[in-house]
Amino acid sequence: MKRLSGTALPIWFWLFVVYLFLPLFVMAAMGFRDSKFIAFPIHDWTTAWYRSVLADEEILSALWISLQAALYSTVIAVAIGLPMSFVVARTRGLLRGLMIAAIVLPAFLPVVVSAIAIRMFLGNLGLETGIAAISFGHAISSVPFVVIMLLTRLNAMSENMADAARNLGADDLIVLFRIVLPFLAPALFGAIMFCLLLSFEDFVRSFFLGGNKPTFPVLLYAKLRFGFDPGLAAISTIVLIASTALGLYAERHIRRRKLGR
Amino acid sequence: MTRLLVSARQFGPYRSAVDTLARLPALRFALIAAIPIGWIAVANLAPLAQMVAISFQDRYPLPPGEPTLWTLNHYAAFFETPHYLAAFIRSFAFATLATLLTLVVMFPIAYYLSKVAPRDRRIRLLLLVIAPFWISEIVRSFAWILMLANRGAVNSALGLLGIPGAPLDLLYNNVSLTIGVLYLTSLYMLLPLYAALEKIDGSLLEAAAGLGASPLKRLWRIVLPLSRDGIVGGCTLVFLLVIGLYAMPQLLGGPDDTLFAATIGYVFSRAGDSWPLGSAFSMILIGVALAYVGLFAVLFRSRKPARPT
Question: I want to staple A49 with a disulfide (CB 3.0 to 4.6 A). Which of A94, A124, A234, B237 is the partner?
Answer without folding.
Answer: A234
